[in-house]
Specification:
27% strand; alpha+beta; 17 strands
Length: 264
Amino acid sequence: MSELIFANYGYCHCCEQAVRFTAADSWFRDHYVCSECGSIPRERALSWAIDKFFPDWRQATIHESSPIPRGASEKLKQHCGNYITSQYFPGVESGVEFQGWRCEDLENLSFADNSIDLHISQDVMEHILSPKQVFLEIARTLRPGGMHIFTVPLVNKSRVSEICAERGENGVIKHLLEPEYHGNPVSEQGALVTRRWGYDICEHIFKSSGLFTQIIHLDALEWGIRAEFIEVLITMKPLSITDNVMSDTGLKEQSKTKLKNCSK
């Protein structure tokens, strides 16, 4: 067993119990784990955000793209009666079962308009070739009052987001930067990084879909939430067009209230 470099006791929002958090590596994003459920900081931050900003999730219709077999995904699976999971398989039509999974291409979802209460994605949006189309599809399929709650590494922070790869002629991938791949549960090759997002992702989402997005940053050791690039983003679909500004302002004020005593 690797020597621990950090440990503390606290409460895990994924497995909802008192636990010990430990880290055997200084890269907390992947190595600061819960002793009970094995979750890592961004998963715990996501679970916290779902509980706080969409508290009725247990009765909701939830779709998660590329779920993880632990942490927030496991919690949703255990406690939500209408939790739909999917993976993406190139060349397979959305809505079709393939290799034991429902295939969903986020650029062309099979869900009906206004049919999903909550879309969840964990570190997926940096692997999308056409973000505009994905944000449009998420907006189309969300019910009024619904949300997309997700994590994505905002590695560029205040710098402009970069395109790393794009779809060229005849669908051939054109690499604009040195190819980088992250782990993919359904592909040994991994998932190609197509975007290095910055905080301007909120502007991209608004220009694509007309929906407002808030960025939530938590730093709370007592919840095992401390690491690099663990922001949670929340995109809201208003109940009506006239509610759009009010919804954005309401979440902003709610965020201030919720985070006032937990940011360090």
